[in-house]
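Gamma-amino-N-butyrate transaminase: structure tokens wanted.
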Amino acid sequence: MWSKIVTRRVFFKVRFCSSLVPDEPEGPCVLTDVPGPCSRKLKKDLGKDQYAGEVTLFGNYQKSIGNYLVDADDNVLLDMFSQIATLPLGYNHPELLKLFQDDKKLKTMINRPALGVFPGEDQPKRIHSLVSQIAPCLPKINLMMCGACANEQVFKNVFIAYQRKKRGQEGFTDEEKTTAVINQPPGAPNLCILSFCGGLHGRALGALASTHTKYIYKIDYPSLDWPIAYFPRYRYPLDENERENIEEDKKSLAHVEELFATYKKKETPVAGVIVEPIQGEGGNNEASALYFQELQKIIKRNNAYLVFNEIQTGGGSTGKFWCHEYFDLPVPPDAVTFSKKFAVAGYFHSDELTPDKPFRVFNTWMGDPGKVIILEAIIKVMREQDLLDNVLKVGARLKCGLVELEEEFCEIMDSVRGVGTFLAFNIANEELRDTVLHKLLRKGVVLGRCGESGLRLRPALIFQEHHADIFLDILRQVLKQCK
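Answer:
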């Protein structure tokens, strides 16, 4: 599926090159512990009024710029996690800073309308622009508030379409209308969404039923009896483990087929399948193009719908705007959800998934026109600066460097994987992984966890080769300390 990486010896010599963002620092600069005394005090202050157990540090977003996060203690950190993969252009990009100096755009932002019923007069033009520029071969778009909301709402589109096929052109019966209100069939039919072990699709209750990563996200919450399929777990390097990985594909696909049959017998048919092109938090787990082609065939044979969750993978970090473009599917998926790097959340979908009556898929705001303005600027900068090409070039350098480090530190590091700059690698165990993460932070590098013992890279699209060299050099120092 992914391009083979040719290993070559690289010396991680830091070179200070021109940045895509003016006035960016030349490298990390750590003055205190991380988190430092100011961050620790602020966490204590915040904790008086709000639970703050997840807080790592406090950012100074006035000083942060480009690929560098400046924290409350003035530590300058090379941010390889970019606010959980949400910053396509890094911090304080000049093209974004000037957006709301325009009064018309400012008024669009502060008069945030209920777009479903009172959209601004420029809304048709803005929506058409988005569909024409970035739609993944799907004709319709629906904007939402966040990624979890997008996934949760697209399930509704799937259920509506599935029931419409079953019902035909007939309207709702009186029994359906009455039972829907009290959560009983036939108005609230027994249908389900199939998802995969290791998938993360959000933390609203419906989306949470399809999320299968950490127990802490789910424990104590009632959920739905929805099927959970096995997702392939590849061995690396890919070219040395082709036979084993093909068997992983077969194992997963057979389980999907089995679950379709099982839930049909239970009279709770699978209406749709949601899957990440590369599982993010679950471990940066990937599967082949052939796997996804076969998965789509299974879904279509069962008259269900395929939803790609591209909340992490969409927007360019894999080197394509949509990661599923790598799969060469014979027909487009039925829906693709997005958020994070897009500033606004939502999903593209087929005509078949379009609701046939108003207020069936609805909330107060239906997106945010101010965030759409930001997305328009992001798309413009991506094109002007050829950021997809930049991602492929820098990603190749990063992956090559990580493979070399894996060879040098094979006893503690393995399974370098991913595409573009959407990369990850494993550390020998969870405890050592957390030690490496802490040491990297202390040296001025921010990474994210994934899976049982993985570390994931999610840099901004403006991340360049000299940033990669800085990171690889610091990572080598840390691995040497842990050896």
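The chain has two domains: 37-94+391-438+462-482, 103-382. The chain has 14 helices and 14 strands.

Cheers.
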